[in-house]
Amino acid sequence: MAEVVFDQASRIYTPGAKPAVDRLDLTVADGDLVVLVGPSGSGKSTALRMLAGLEPIDAGSVRIDGRDVVDVPSKDRDIAMVFQNYALYPSKTVAENMAFPLKMRGMDKDERAQRVRQAAEMLGLTEYLDRKPKALSGGQRQRVAMGRAIVREPQVFLMDEPLSNLDAKMRVQTRAQIAEMQNRLEVSTVYVTHDQVEAMTMGDKVAVLANGQLQQYATPPELYDRPKNAFVAGFIGSPAMNLLDLPRSSSGVTLGGVEIPLPRDVSDAAGSRDKLTIGIRPEDWVLESTDADSSTVVKAVVDVVEELGSESYLYAHLADDTSTSVVVRGPGRVKVRFGDPIAVRPNPDALHVFDAETGERLP
Amino acid sequence: MTATLEERPAAPENAGGKPAIDKAEGWRRRGPLLPALIFTIIVTQIPFILTLYYSLQSWNLVRPGSQEFVWFSNYGDVFADSQFRTVALNTVIMTLGSVLIAVVLGLLLALLLNRQFAGRGIVRTLLITPFLITPVAAALLWKTVLLDPTLGLINFVLTPFGGSGTEWISQFPLASVMAALIWQWTPFMMLLLLAGLQSMPTDQLEAARVDGASAWSTFRELTLPHLRRFIELGVVLGTIYLVNIFDQVYMMTQGGPGVASANLPFYIYQRAFLGFDIGQSAAMGVVVVILTLIAANFALRLIFRSFSGEQEAA
Amino acid sequence: MAVTTSTPPDTQEPAAPPEPRRQKRSAANVWLGVVAWIVGIAFFFPVFWMVLTSFKQETDAYTTTPKIIFEPTLEQYEGVFSAGVGPYLVNSVIATVFSTLLVLLLGIPAAFAVSLRPVKKTQDVLFFFISTKMLPVVAVIVPIYVVVNQIGMLDNIWTLVVLYTGMNLPIAVWMMRSFFLEVPGELLEQASIDGAPLWRTLREIVLPIISPGIFATALICVIFAWNEFFFAVNLTAANAGTVPVFLVGFITSEGLYWAQLSAAATMAALPVVIAGWVAQNKLVQGLSFGAVK
């Protein structure tokens, strides 16, 4: 068990080019599960591999339990990793796969067998211990890879998209299993995924990366409620937050001819900017009657309706500006269809306001 | 490719090391390569450098002490030699003719074998056998059992059509040798092109079927372009292997009558080991190398293309 | 994708498609199958005839109308042995086995170095190897003869062992490289996290994965070495001659005895035909330097 610290850690593939990981600062508290999430090319996997010792740390440092590991080879970092494709040794049985890291550390045979047995019980693999990986299903292979990590009793678990090769149902099931197991073992875990749902459901804290840089590092509710910039705002949440570039008016901004007032602290922070990026989550619209006065509601025309049963999402464009599209959450069994007019009003207390140039949150 | 894999560099050389591999590590990595490299240089390159050197000398083995430096006069003699020109032409006909026919036949066979039918594995095994037969034994087989004018199977089969009694080896020496070569190399082309056909993504073929393409237009528009690389590779590899053919010529015709069926390897052999003219045969060897280099240039490019394609995929 | 995971075994086999609709298609397939069988038999027939003839009496072999029914005999094989094929067989075995072992000994580390732990000049080295295969043998036979003669190694089987190693090494390096590259990188990374030293990773993890490939490579080297004739005929005589050399001498002396010739040719070809049948799936990969799988 240990605290993991990235301290200005960088990975530069080609000197002079943009670093793959750019001065990353991140602290994983002891026993936490931290998810690194971001689009492809964001550097999340590279960061994990730097921690694993599979990529060199070109600048800055990485510390595990207070020890700088920059020059420590993988095997001496006291970590265990679960790979995307599981990396099971094809010539070894399940039991041999799980025992291999222990054998390499010179643990005696009886203890090895006992630990493997325990892990297998925990993961429901007992009856498969003598099988070769190729005789297992995808989900079973995934569990063997987990088992091989668990038996090590390492200071840190590293997981690189461990669920991406599973089908949707299996993924949800295994997601819960991993989170539950990690809670029980209380081993600090760094988990990489491109799936923001995985990130939000599993992480004690989530680090959002883009272009090699850390965008925000926070708990899931905080990420959702107070995204630090427009990128995080658009990345977290599904369907994504509506991000609209709107002109300033006297008391706020205007959207489709409707004046949207901004809270005092926001408009103070906005200063003299004549444009702002306004973020409105789909659930933060209020559906109004289409008869309402057009100076208080925004009129839009529905393009697509996604009916999910308990709720629905309306994809629409503004009536007087067809190039601006919005997503609005509505109730289940909504009666509107393609081409119908709707009227919406943003909930003024749930607005996210960003600088239109830098994307930084205001205030 | 999934998102995370794209972030990683393709080469595994970044795994577990510093970006700039330090000197000691560099040698540790190169070390396992050196024995093979040094061995290959000694066995293949040094003799070739000696060939270059000998080609500038007048040297006949049966006249000891005759060795002297003559600059390029051997090359002059080689190009003035009308037999050499005939032999060079024979080599081109024999090599390209056999390769092209083998590729066409190989393609037809590959298309046949790319379907499901009972005993496909056995048929494939039967088909590749000619390629495996020791070339000397294969040549012997053709010379006697198949092409013998009175007792050969070919004339026996042709008798009902009034074709008996043809003296294949003496009347058509070059064609006879080529027939043996084609019989041996068609299976190789078939295997290569079959590998090509089987690497064809099935979803493309299914898409074509859904799009309503006929079998012929699917073949022409999708299969053939996909096979192009394999056909080119077959032509180039076949050329490289067949330009060196010696066994069949030696066994079936001894290059005769005259030099009617001799190719460059056989002619050089004659000059070196029957005529003992080291200088001239070395000069001819150099000429062959230059000709081969031209073909090899294409080959290297082709293989490099496959090679870098594979790198992308890795 | 570098790593492929085969489909889990718990997926069900799809049920057999309904029969009637496929009838037209399969009728064509049956006919083309018959054509394939005919062509296959035609290609194989000379080989079959050679083997058949080797079991005939000379009187049965030497007929204007080919004989299929006859009383088989092993007399011809006895004849080949009494003509002294024994030492030639031994030479062929020595040249083949030792050159193949040497190829593996030199080639496996080299293939490992150029695939799993490449350095900057790796590609140059790879293309050097391949370019040596494009150098015609005739261009080097003269100096090889002169040098071998000068160091007194003419008609010595170890000369052939060395030359055959040089001949097969480039193919083997390229071929084995392509097998090494098929080892998923994640496995090696996992092994390094698990703390396995390099040699253990190689022995316990890499080798089991690539051993079928190494076996196929060895078989292809065996085929080439066994069949080689040019070096053998030029550099050996009575002491170190290999089976193809024996065959040539045999023809000149036994020109008219077809049955016995067939027996000798069958003996020469049989080992490599079997090796080739075993290695047939990897033949193309070897001959195309790993460019085609």
UniProtKB/TrEMBL annotation, chain A:
InterPro entries: AAA+_ATPase, ABC_transporter-like_ATP-bd, ABC_transporter-like_CS, ABC_transpr_MalK-like, ABC_transpr_MalK/UgpC-like, Mo/tungstate-bd_C_term_dom, NA-bd_OB-fold, OB_MalK-like. The keyword Transcription does not apply. It comes from the Bacteria. GO terms for biological process: carbohydrate transport. Keywords: ATP-binding, Nucleotide-binding, Transport. Residues 4-236 form the ABC transporter domain. SMART domains: AAA. GO terms for cellular component: ATP-binding cassette (ABC) transporter complex, substrate-binding subunit-containing. GO terms for molecular function: ABC-type transporter activity; ATP binding; ATP hydrolysis activity. PANTHER family: MALTODEXTRIN IMPORT ATP-BINDING PROTEIN MSMX, OSMOPROTECTIVE COMPOUNDS UPTAKE ATP-BINDING PROTEIN GGTA. This is Carbohydrate ABC transporter ATP-binding protein (CUT1 family).
From TrEMBL, chain B:
Its main location: membrane. GO terms for cellular component: plasma membrane. Residues 1-22 are annotated as: Disordered. GO terms for biological process: transmembrane transport. InterPro entries: MetI-like (IPR000515), MetI-like_sf (IPR035906). Residues 1-10 have a biased composition (Basic and acidic residues). It holds the Pfam family BPD_transp_1. Residues 88-299 form the ABC transmembrane type-1 domain. The chain crosses the membrane at residues 33-56, 92-113, 125-142, 174-195, 230-251, 282-304. Keywords: Cell membrane, Membrane, Transmembrane, Transmembrane helix, Transport. The keyword Repeat does not apply. This is Carbohydrate ABC transporter membrane protein 1 (CUT1 family). Belongs to the binding-protein-dependent transport system permease family. It is found in: Cell membrane. SUPFAM superfamilies: MetI-like. It comes from the Bacteria. It is a multi-pass membrane protein.
From TrEMBL, chain C:
Residues 1-22 are annotated as: Disordered. It is found in: Cell membrane. Belongs to the binding-protein-dependent transport system permease family. PANTHER family: ABC TRANSPORTER PERMEASE PROTEIN, MALTOSE TRANSPORT SYSTEM PERMEASE-RELATED. The chain crosses the membrane at residues 30-52, 88-113, 125-145, 157-176, 205-226, 232-251, 258-279. Residues 1-10 have a biased composition (Polar residues). The keyword Cell wall biogenesis/degradation does not apply. This is Carbohydrate ABC transporter membrane protein 2 (CUT1 family). One of its GO terms (biological process) is transmembrane transport. Keywords: Cell membrane, Membrane, Transmembrane, Transmembrane helix, Transport. It comes from the Bacteria. Residues 89-279 form the ABC transmembrane type-1 domain. GO terms for cellular component: plasma membrane. InterPro entries: BP-dep_ABC_trans_perm, MetI-like, MetI-like_sf. It is a multi-pass membrane protein.
